[in-house]
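Class, carefully examine what follows:
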Amino acid sequence: MPRYEIHSCEQMIELIGQLGFLPLLVSGISGYSAEEMADEECRYVVFPDGGWDWPLWKWKGIIINESDRWRACAFVQRLWPLWIVLIVIAIIAIGVLTYHAPDWIIFADLG
């Protein structure tokens, strides 16, 4: 992954638009988080008096409000009861198939 030096909220929004998704914190994929891609001045800092500053945390609300990707997900918010019903049906179908599947679905001979 190319190395990015993010210095502002606008740059972060542009990068997320290019990548599609970017976790805020280190996620196990080296170099693939907002924390790792941000410049040193934008990372988490603890002051000697015990206070702290974290520009990335301050940017999260702006990123969510300005990002077109979040607006594209608005249909999920409007249709959440339908999504719940679909998930429940899928869970029931998996449970029924797990215990009452015909022999032709079972591929492994465990006996």
